[in-house]
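Key result, reporting period 2: structure in, sequence out.
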């Protein structure tokens, strides 16, 4: 693979601008461990009590999803998607969620991270940081969103621009937003919530129900095709497909996107699930019932972390 092609592959990894997933709190290559999800969730429930005003979500603080990333037949790294904690941004309580990728091909390493701060009540974005460290490209961007005044501001270079929505979403927040949708097969959803006008509308096509097996676990999935009005991973040419669990969690278990000028695809494969604790009381009850039901159906499942 020549250097120009490698550069193109890594540029695709950060497009949507969704990068895929970074590696943060869990060490790569750690031994598989038996994991008591219910005890862990109980401890989170003490740390994060229910919030009657929080929006209903299938996720919450503590959720940690680990992935294997491949480019064609090559292992390109491992990563995670994590709802790390709650933060206060200018008086607004938010979820701090991180995505990125760490790895790459021999001699060409990638260490990207993308952090979003989503309002607990409205799920709009208040802050978005993109930090890219790749062989042919480095970039740091810190966006602050001010929907009450209708603009965004980049603190790293003092650039500003108009917000395209009064409830703006960044690239990462949109993934969490999709997980809240009904995702009815055959339906198409269209939203003009991306914070820059040139990214709108974001179109979500729900293609079919399917099954996908990874790490010895078979999941019933809903297959979604996202289309963003920009070039890149979810642009028209990528023909991307995302497989979400067909249950209350809506966890991304597999993603595939074509790579231009390359005989293969970028794929993302779920390795492990560590569930968090939703803040909304109804969502928390739904999550607990789902765990109990899955424990009956799959009592011997080992969760890796």
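The corresponding designed sequence is given below.
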């Amino acid at each position: 693979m020549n250097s120009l092609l490698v550069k193109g592959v890594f540029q695709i990894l950060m497009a949507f601008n969704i990068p895929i997933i970074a590696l943060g709190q869990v060490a790569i290559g750690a031994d598989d461990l038996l994991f008591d999800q219910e005890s862990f969730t109980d401890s989170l429930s003490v740390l994060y009590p229910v919030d009657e005003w929080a929006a209903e979500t299938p996720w919450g603080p503590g959720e940690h999803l680990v992935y294997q990333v491949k480019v064609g037949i090559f292992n390109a790294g491992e990563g995670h998607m994590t709802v790390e904690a709650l933060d206060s941004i200018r008086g607004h309580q938010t979820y701090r969620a991180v995505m990125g990728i760490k790895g790459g091909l021999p001699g060409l390493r990638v260490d990207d991270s993308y952090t979003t701060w989503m309002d607990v009540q409205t799920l709009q974005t208040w802050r978005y940081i993109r930090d890219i460290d790749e062989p042919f490209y480095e970039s740091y961007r810190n966006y602050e969103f001010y929907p009450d005044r209708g603009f965004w501001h980049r603190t790293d270079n003092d650039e500003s621009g108009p917000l395209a929505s009064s409830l703006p979403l960044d690239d990462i927040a949109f993934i969490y937003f999709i997980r809240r949708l009904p995702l009815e097969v055959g339906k198409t959803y269209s939203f003009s919530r991306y914070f820059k006008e040139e990214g709108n509308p974001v179109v979500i096509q729900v293609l079919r129900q399917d099954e996908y097996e990874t790490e010895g676990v078979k999941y019933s999935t809903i297959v979604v095709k996202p289309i963003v009005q920009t070039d890149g991973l979810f642009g028209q040419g990528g023909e991307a497909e995302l497989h979400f669990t067909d249950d209350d969690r809506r966890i991304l278990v597999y993603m595939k996107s074509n790579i231009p000028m390359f005989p293969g695809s970028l794929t993302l494969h779920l390795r492990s699930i560590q569930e968090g604790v939703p803040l909304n009381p109804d969502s928390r009850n739904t999550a607990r019932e789902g765990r109990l039901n899955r424990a009956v159906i799959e009592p011997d499942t080992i969760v890796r972390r």
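Residues 3-297 form one domain. The CA atoms of residues 240 and 257 lie 4 Å apart. This case is discussed further under Risks and Mitigation.
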